[in-house]
Amino acid sequence: MLDERDRRLGMDRPITRRDLLNGFGAITAGIVLPSSASKHKAPSLLKTESSGGFYPPALTGLRGNHLGSFEVMHKLAREDNTNWGPTPKLDKDHYDLAIVGAGISGLSAAYFFQKERPDARILLLDNHDDFGGHAKRNEFEVDGRKLISYGGAQTMAAPSGYPRVVKRLLRELGVSMGVFNKAYDQKFYRRHKLSGGIHFNKELWGRDATIPFDVANFRDWMPMFDSRLEVQDAVSKMPLSQAARLEILRLFTTTEDQIPHLSEAEKWDYLYTISYRDFLIRHCGITEDEVFAVFQDLTSDSGVGIDSVNAASALWSAGLPGWETAGLPNAGQDEPYIHHFPDGNASIARQLVRKMCPEVAEGESMEDLIKANFDYSKLDLQGAPVRIRLNSTVVNVQHSGVKSTGAGVTATYIRGGQAHRVKAGAVILACNNAAIPFLCDELPEKQREALAMQVKVPILYTNVALRNWIAWKKLGVGALVCPGSYHINASLDFPVSYGKYQFAKTPDEPVVVHMERFPHRSNEGLTPKEQFRLGRHELANTSFETIERNVRTQLAGMLGPGGFDPARDIAGITANRWAHGYSYWYRSLFDKEYDDDNDPRYPHIIARERYGQITIANADSGANAMMETAIEQAYRAVTELLG
């Protein structure tokens, strides 16, 4: 039953499919599959008006690790299930290559393999109902207008430094980096006088306060308008004690080097050995709990709080205050963070698919790709050289004979509750490293142990379609950090107009707001991996209704002073839940690090070793969550097989 408060928030508005996509909390209680796995059915596939058939990007509600995508793997990994019902149906077709995972790495591997072997037959198997892995596209229809956003992989960061093989692939796909100089409206924030800001919520801080002051340096990676508030005025508006205000003011205004006895190189070395919380205590004189609480989770992309992030990363990557206090020199100009398609890196995945499965969509250019209608029924055509089979969870991969005989590899997968088996000359495992030991038990024990060491950062990317952004304009903010709120930040989507897709020009036009949550447990003495496991458990036990209520409550508190009404102004919500999000990278406070990124002692190097006709390609293989890593590792894996 909804109470009056829920109705004011708009929880009774029919904007999402709560009945179908409402979470998977039962999974953690062990209710994964019926006792007979063959009876298990994924949720019914919905039809949408966008394509006349099943079209995943237009689905709202709970996406990312959606219902039907994980149950089989959980049954295998958590319950050691190997009984998948009747004898698997043997696929009639034999493939030169089968790829487990149709994310960026899996798609790139298929592309590289086909380029070298044009006559090859390739099958990609993926457990989700959409391709792209984390590079997912979200669409909304608002008042007759289509809005496009990203549900995962966001932007091509610093592409000038990409490896040569990645640059070549992007050129072949038709990606021109120069286009973004115009496509990304770099004057948008200044034209509308939108700065970065901070929001304090009433529940934690005593009152709602949205302050247009950029405490987390959004302007380091977004061309924001400079705050209209001086630091003294901004701090005076924060709902904090006088002692906490004085400490924050000192933190933002101190310019004297507090570790002058260290050279620049020594400073960096030292800052990698202490947490940002320790840096605040030792060198900034911070003692008030309120101050620590303000900055606690602003190192968001790291997946953990300031107690578990080294000070160097907090200052350089997260843009938290203290640069001058550490005596660091003026930072050089970074490559602008503008290389963003309206759907993020989903455009890269879509172009790879269109190149290999041309019947799925018309056109050739990246510009016409943005609004191209994709026909998902054409992904798995009989006789096509490259086939993509979705809703198919691989549960076993093994050599057909002794691995050195060249007899090939078999892969068993579950689709619609039925087990299937396919034969291929070779297999590339382009899936989560941590899943591989369960589906390929013939790998050497040392390699299986290394694979199992991958624990990904859990992420919740929530996209909210608004009928307008008038409240943002009135408040003078374009992006906010929200200490203590359910989502740690919220921002207007990037102002990108690409091809025939146009971003909102005026505040009365609809827009997408992007919100992020990185669940973890701070200040409990836990390692990042321990925190990530607990965060994953939280996501698994969170219903869409809970996420929606938090979204509406948070936006109402943030934007209410600007006239925002969540019941009236929210047109749609898509929660992209990634229980296994960013690939784990080594943390200086917790992990042994070596001078060479390819040092053979690293677990990810051991984990990616080729085994007969089975090899591994994913971002995990490079211990880096970036798109370029996924592509580079795909190239390595294909080269290993063909070399």
Give a description of the structure.
Helix content is 29%, strand content 18%. The chain is an alpha/beta fold and 643 residues long. An 8-stranded mixed beta sheet has the order 1-16-12-15-14-13-6-7. Strands 2, 3, 8, 9, 10, 11 and 17 form a 7-stranded mixed beta sheet that branches. β2, α3 (104-116) and β3 (122-125) form a beta-alpha-beta unit. α3 packs parallel to α23 (627-642).
Strand order of the largest sheet: 1-16-12-15-14-13-6-7
Characterize the main sheet.
8 strands, mixed
- Content-based structural category: alpha/beta
Helix percent reads: 25-40%
The tally of beta strands, per DSSP, is 17
Over the alpha carbons, how many angstroms does the gyration radius reach? Answer: 25 Å
Sum up the overall morphology in one term: globular
Mean of residue pLDDT? 92
Counted by DSSP, the helix tally is 23
Amino- and carboxy-terminal Cα gap: 63 Å
β-sheet strand percentage: 15-25%
Low-confidence parts lasting 5 or more residues at pLDDT below 50?
16-51
Structure in a nutshell:
This protein has 643 residues and is α/β, with parallel strands linked by helices. The chain has helices at residues 4-9, 71-79, 104-116, 164-173, 180-183, 188-191, 202-205, 231-236, 242-253, 264-271, 276-284, 289-295, 311-316, 346-356, 366-369, 436-439, 445-452, 470-475, 528-540, 544-559, 566-569, 603-607, 627-642; strands spanning 61-64, 89-100, 122-125, 137-142, 145-150, 195-200, 209-211, 386-389, 393-399, 409-415, 418-429, 457-466, 477-481, 489-492, 511-517, 570-582, 614-616.
